[in-house]
Amino acid sequence: MIRAANVMGIPVVVTEQYPERFGSTSSQIASLLKPACKAIPKTTFSMVTADVDAILAEHPSRTQILLTGIEAQVCVFQTALDLLARDYEVHVLVDGVSSSRTLDRNVGISRMAQHGAFMSCYEMALLQLMRDSKAPHFKAISELLKETRPEPELPSPRPLLLPKL
Predict the structure, then answer these.
(1) What is the pLDDT of residues 96-123, one digit of tens each?
(2) Which of 27, 56, 105, 164 is most buried per CB count within 10 Å?
(3) What are phi and psi of 97, to 5 degrees?
(4) What is the pLDDT of residue 152?
(5) Contact between 159 and 110 (Cβ < 8 Å)
(6) Helix, strand, coil proportions of the chain in percent (round to 5)?
(7) Which residues contact 158 (CB under 8 A, 6 or more apart)?
(8) How far apart are the first and last CA of the chain?
(9) What is the percent of the chain with per-residue pLDDT over 70, rounded to a whole number?
């Protein structure tokens, strides 16, 4: 997704959960970031920190967020809630979120959807952004979509009934 964002000029924001304890962004991801995109360290579970709020404020016309990350039931979930509370339209790339346990991932995805986030995937999101095969970056995006990607485990096909908190 980072390569596609770079092609289309979509700003990328990266945070790291307590890097002193858990380590920095993987070199595989860091190598794709533009030099100006520096990972923001955080200890809160949500990535919406004062630094991230400042970056979001630099792009007032952007009202939609494509959200990826690890620990769908904690960091991604709390980030989605914070962004929704700020009136962003949140699109969670289901094939771009993970958790240590499948159940946790499934519950996180279900809860984000219950709160109003849209569940999407890499290909769906990119082609929605393109809208037309004549779009300026369609050829480059089409090449990215042809690449083999790992098949993530899908959320449970049955809805999870969870109490409102």
Answers:
(1) 999 999 999 999 999 999 999 999 999 9
(2) 105
(3) -125, 150
(4) 64
(5) yes
(6) 40, 15, 45
(7) none
(8) 32
(9) 92
